[in-house]
Specification:
With 115 residues, this protein is of the alpha+beta class. Helices cover 38% and strands 24% of the residues.
Length: 115
């Protein structure tokens, strides 16, 4: 089970990340340009971007107990992740992948160069 503190730690470890309240005061993490993850309510879930709608569908199809969507995200490369099911390492990997898709290219290049 992942707690919001685990999400916060993973997100804030990424270059340029900042935390802001979003959508009903729920925590979100952003780069200067845009949001890359947030924790939604009802049900509580991590929201991350993935590379494509096909990747989203593959994740949901392969593990519907962990990954899901709602009508609000139909047609978008965004997947919801049940916090009570995912572990901290997988959540951190998903958050990092989402950040890579949403962060400025220079920030991603600098992050990759650091190893």
């Amino acid at each position: 089970m992942v707690r919001i503190e685990d999400v916060r730690r993973a997100a804030m470890a990424l270059p340029g990340a900042e935390e802001r309240a979003s959508y009903g005061g729920r925590p979100s993490w952003r780069t200067p340009a845009r949001m890359f993850t947030w924790v939604r309510d009802d049900p509580e879930a991590l929201v991350v971007w993935v590379g494509s709608v096909e990747e989203k569908e593959a994740l949901i199809g392969s593990d519907p107990d962990t990954f899901f969507t709602t009508a609000h995200y139909d047609g978008e490369p965004i997947v919801l992740v049940r916090l009570e099911v995912v572990d901290a390492d997988e959540a951190a990997e998903l958050i990092t992948g989402s950040w890579r898709l949403r962060a400025p290219a220079r920030a991603v290049s600098a992050f990759d160069a650091r190893g």
